[in-house]
C-alpha cells in the first residue's frame, strides 16, 4: 500500500496516521523510543503491507505484468491503489475525501517534529505538490512511477510500466475493489 491508503486505513488519531507513513521510514529507528500511538501506526503499516502481499487478488494482479516488469509490480500496485482509492472513495468511506486529504496534510505539518528528516522532506513535498490530488488522474500515476524508476540504482525495465497498467486497467481496478474491501475489514480488526 502507498501513503494515502496507509493514512486512510490507520487508527483514527493524528499520531497513528503519522506512524502509518513512518512505517516506510523506520529503518534504523527503535520502535520502543516512539510514542505508543506512533508505534501503533508503524505496526498497523506493517500489518497492512503483510496482508496486502498475501492477498489472492493482489497476487493475481501482479501476474498481469510482463516478466520484465513483474519484479516491480508490487511498487506499481501500491501507487496505483491510491488512484483507485481516490476514484472509489465513496464506496469505502463516508468521510469527505478532500477534507480528509487536507486534514492529513495539516497533520504532516503539525507533527513534523516526530518525523525523521527524510520523512519530513517527503511529507512536505506531498502536501506542497498535492500528491493525493494528483493521484486522481491515471496519467499522473504513470509520471510518479517513472520517477520511482529513475531512483532505482540498477538497470531495470520499470520505466513506462503505466502502459501495462493501462492495458489491464479494468481487471486491475476490479481486483482492487474486491481486495480493498477485505483489507479495510482486516485493518479495522487490527
Notes on the structure:
The protein is mainly alpha-helical and 190 residues long. The protein has one domain (3-188). It contains 12 helices and no strands. The protein has helices at residues 3-9, 14-22, 36-54, 56-62, 73-87, 89-92, 97-110, 117-128, 131-134, 138-151, 162-167, 169-188. The radius of gyration is 16 Å and the shape is globular.
Which stretches are low in confidence, meaning pLDDT under 50 for 5 or more residues running? none
- The gross shape turns out to be globular
Total domains: 1
- Average pLDDT across residues? 92
* N-to-C order of helices and strands: HHHHHHHHHHHH
Query: Whole-number radius of gyration?
Result: 16 Å
User: Which structural category do the helix and sheet elements fall into?
Assistant: mainly alpha
Summarize this structure as a short list of keywords or feature phrases.
190 residues, 12 helices, mainly alpha
Amino acid at each position: 500500500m502507498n501513503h494515502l491508503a496507509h493514512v486512510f486505513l490507520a487508527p483514527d488519531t493524528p499520531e497513528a496516521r503519522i506512524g502509518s507513513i513512518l512505517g516506510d521510514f523506520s529503518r534504523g529507528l527503535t520502535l520502543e523510543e516512539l510514542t505508543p500511538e506512533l508505534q501503533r501506526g508503524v505496526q498497523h503499516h506493517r500489518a497492512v503491507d503483510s496482508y496486502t502481499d498475501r492477498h489472492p487478488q493482489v497476487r493475481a494482479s501482479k501476474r498481469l505484468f510482463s516478466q520484465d516488469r513483474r519484479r516491480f509490480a508490487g511498487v506499481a500496485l501500491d501507487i496505483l491503489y491510491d488512484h483507485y482509492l481516490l476514484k472509489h472513495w465513496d464506496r469505502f468511506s463516508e468521510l469527505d475525501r478532500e477534507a480528509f486529504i487536507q486534514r492529513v496534510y495539516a497533520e504532516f505539518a503539525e507533527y513534523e517534529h516526530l518525523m525523521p528528516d527524510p520523512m519530513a522532506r517527503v511529507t512536505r513535498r506531498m502536501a506542497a505538490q498535492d500528491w493525493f490530488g494528483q493521484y486522481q488522474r491515471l496519467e499522473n500515476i504513470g509520471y510518479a512511477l517513472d520517477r520511482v524508476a529513475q531512483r532505482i540504482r540498477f538497470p531495470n525495465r520499470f520505466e513506462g510500466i503505466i502502459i501495462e497498467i493501462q492495458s489491464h486497467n479494468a481487471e486491475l481496478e476490479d481486483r482492487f475493489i474486491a481486495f480493498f474491501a477485505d483489507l479495510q475489514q482486516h485493518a479495522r480488526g487490527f
